[in-house]
Write a structure and sequence with these properties.
single chain, 292 residues, alpha/beta, Rossmann fold, 6-stranded mixed β-sheet, 4-stranded antiparallel β-sheet
Length: 292
């Protein structure tokens, strides 16, 4: 593999960007961990600002939320709501201005860049809209990339897991194909297999169906749903698509950098209605005025 071809989510982040950790919060003097709370990841009083003074922009405003273990969570909101910023900080790809973040029981705010790199390689999976496959590697090379970047070969148990993913995702006949020889749906299947190969604590999916046709999109969402329901995988998906979000067990809505609602499974129609009402409310328009 060419040494210069490294996926950004597995590489060192820019230096000097870590936020200072806050004091540990306790209940009756006892530390409460993410495991105690049944969470795969969580953030506490998370704030992210860009710029200073009058020109400063607050992308996240004192957000506290957790992603439950074994659950498929959708994070929704209009452009500029802070949903992608939240995902990037939860995944250790960006640092907050203030507040704290954990993956499992590991607090990631304050970790060094090297520590974050190792944590992302071993405990976090990524599925992105643009697939982010390495063009010089074939499908199996891309699936095994997290192990290669970690400087090791998969164990027998991990190899069996990879083989099972390949079979489940229908990639057996495509393992020696490079990305340009695969359809969009097949490339996203490879990306999903790569994300799940290391049995990560959490998989982050950023608009995973954005570049797919409706049929391929449904297949990808079904695969993520199965990974959660059948295999207990924790998944956090950022999306603006109500149909995609309707596949999730839980839907978190963001607006202007704050959580505006946290709802159990919703239909696409319910999600669309809520988002429309939120947009109209932000514009100072009553829903009755539109229906009239």
């Amino acid at each position: 593999m060419d040494a210069h071809i490294i996926l950004p989510m597995y590489t060192d982040a820019s230096p000097g960007r870590r936020a200072e950790p806050a004091a540990v919060r306790t209940v009756e003097g006892m530390h409460i961990s993410s495991t105690d709370l049944g969470l795969a990841a969580r953030v506490q009083q998370l704030t992210k600002t860009y710029g200073t003074g009058e020109g400063g922009v607050t992308a996240l405003d004192a957000v506290t939320v957790g992603v439950r273990r074994g659950e498929f969570t959708a994070i929704m909101g209009p452009s500029g709501s802070g949903k992608s910023t939240l995902m990037h900080i939860m995944a250790g790809l960006d640092a907050p201005t203030s507040g704290r973040a954990w993956i499992g029981d590991t607090e990631i705010t304050g970790l060094s860049d090297l520590e974050l790199t190792i944590l992302r390689r071993r405990r976090v999976g990524f599925v992105f809209q643009a697939f982010n496959l390495v063009p010089t590697l074939d499908a199996i090379g891309n699936i095994l990339l997290p192990f290669d970047l970690d400087g090791r070969r998969p164990t027998a148990l991990e190899r069996a897991r990879v083989d099972g993913l390949v079979e489940t995702l229908g990639l057996g006949a495509r393992l020696r194909h490079r990305p340009h020889q695969l359809s969009g749906g097949q490339q996203q299947r490879v990306a999903i297999a790569r994300a799940l190969a290391t049995a990560p604590d959490l998989v982050f999916a950023d608009e995973p169906t954005g570049n797919l046709d409706s049929r391929s999109g449904r297949e990808v969402l079904g695969l993520l749903q199965t990974a959660s329901r059948t295999h207990g995988q924790s998944i956090a998906m950022v999306t603006h698509d109500p149909i995609a979000a309707s596949h999730a067990d839980r839907v978190i809505f963001l607006g202007d950098g704050r959580i505006t609602a946290d709802k159990p499974r919703q239909s696409a129609e319910e999600i669309s209605a809520f988002m429309l009402a939120a947009e109209l409310g932000a514009a100072g328009i009553e829903a009755s005025e539109v229906s009239a």
